[in-house]
Design brief:
The protein has 18 helices and 16 strands. The protein has 507 residues and is of the alpha/beta class. It has two domains: 283 residues, Rossmann fold (3-Layer(aba) Sandwich); 135 residues, Isoleucyl-tRNA Synthetase, Domain 1 (Orthogonal Bundle), CATH 1.10.730.10. Helix 11 packs across helix 12. The longest helix has 30 residues. It binds one RNA strand of 77 nucleotides through helix 6, strand 16, helix 13 and helix 15.
Length: 507
Amino acid sequence: MTNHFYITTPIYYVNDVPHIGNAYTTIAADILARYHRQLGDDVFFLTGTDEHGNPAARAAERRGLSPLEHVNEMVKRFQELARRVNASNDFFIRTTDPEHERSVQKFLGKLYDRGDIYLKSYRGLYCPACEAFYAPKDLLEGKCPDHGTVCDEVEEENYFFRLSAYQSKLIEHFDKHPEFVKPQSRFNEARSFITGGLEDISISRATLKWGIPIPWDESQVVYVWVDALLNYLSALEYAGDHDLTPEFWPASYHMMAKDILKFHAVIWPALLMAAGNKLPEHLFVHGYLLMGGQKMSKTRGNVLDPFDIINRYGADAFRFYCFREVTFGQDGVVSIEGLDARYNTELANDLGNLVSRTTAMIEKFGGGLVPAATGSSESDIASLAGFVTTDATAAMSRVDLTGALEKIWVLVRRLNKYIEDEAPWKLAKDKTAANRLELVLYNLAEGLRICALLLQSFMPETSAEILRRLGQATKAGGLRQGILWGGLKTGGRVIAGEPLFPKIERS
RNA sequence: GGCGGUGUAGCUCAGCUGGUCAGAGCAGCGGAAUCAUAAUCCGCGUGUCGUAGGUUCGAGUCCUACCACCGCUACCA
């Protein structure tokens, strides 16, 4: 029986400019998706865009377009970002998809029928940009802390969801599922927020038009966050040629940055409970990529544009850097200087050059054919490869992406050292050492093949290219059997091509 | 204010349940080698493990207080 693995990114707000944080989350989810495909799991990987709400509606108005015309254009940049980072998503959901809208209405209708939604008049300070109410204390000089705009004193009748009714059930779920939210610190944070007391939340807006109508009261639209969260469920219903829900729900992982933890760890589970759905197995909450120790922001001017980076370094290098440099789950500092350093030392010098020297030596000393294991197969390289595989896959199962890369590099470094220790160029001059030479070349090629397989989810293009140069089938990427020592297909032609990662020269 | 976290070599950080735990990578210095993208490999660190106490035969590793920074949360007066 094949294991099903459903992973999601948040849906990104279509009116914003795609930034490095979107890319980061998407790549993280993609790495896990690819990894699980490699394990042979049946994977569904979802990303998409959140398209309703006031900011998009107003931007459309300013441009003299209908909201839909506007978002149809804006969505392209996010689809482009997914392509450029090499995301292997199985579907791209848009909350303006008619199927999604119907699904949201159906879901809310269910909660309404069950009595978990009621009408209540609410009065407060409302930020139109956030589409949220603020307590006077939360405002900075009377203005929205996020947008710096004046909040309006608003009184409206809204539909409320009985979030408060789910407090104890939520805590129970947290206590029964200590791995529900990862890392642990985020679990604690979410749990303590719940124990601190939950209030019912407004799930509709009366003043807004650009949204999904409340099915039993079309004068109101669904609050964007409820609309957005439901994408995880609705997409399964129509992304395939049949309803995928039975196979893929509950989700294995929702990936997200720390700023939207509460929506996912509190409101989302409560909504699911109310509707009688299963809860996602895990939420994984990652940190921020910082520039100069500060959160990136347009006003500070300390932003890294993911498109720029990919244009200069390639998608693989970018993917590698994000997870090599910053311990996944924590905040971490990134910079162009850091990227250059990692690129040159680890990609060009360690990995790229290892590929070059290995293929060059097989070319010069081994007739250009992928060597076979000869004589005794005694090799501490083989055992190290085994340990590294075990460690790296264990790290992946903990979603410790940084740890996995660290382990893989132990093998990369060891292979470089192995070349120095064995000095094939000396063995090549000694006629009695022919068998030894072939074994050394074999160990190098086989070690490198295993590196390539372990790196496949992180750097799919590089991985395929390494395999190609070693005369291996590019698709032979299985991690259950293919990863075992001895899987090298021998006899094929090695390709000694251009450097995988040409050095970056910096002024 | 409450809760939680962090503070270890110049830099980024590993160090789980106390006894080679004083480490890794990068940067720097010296050397070897030449298959390779002058790429690699080897050697070199006297670090008050935030501060001050305490528990223990023994503490980055446990306890207390304090300092700094961060996150969540609250708001009495």
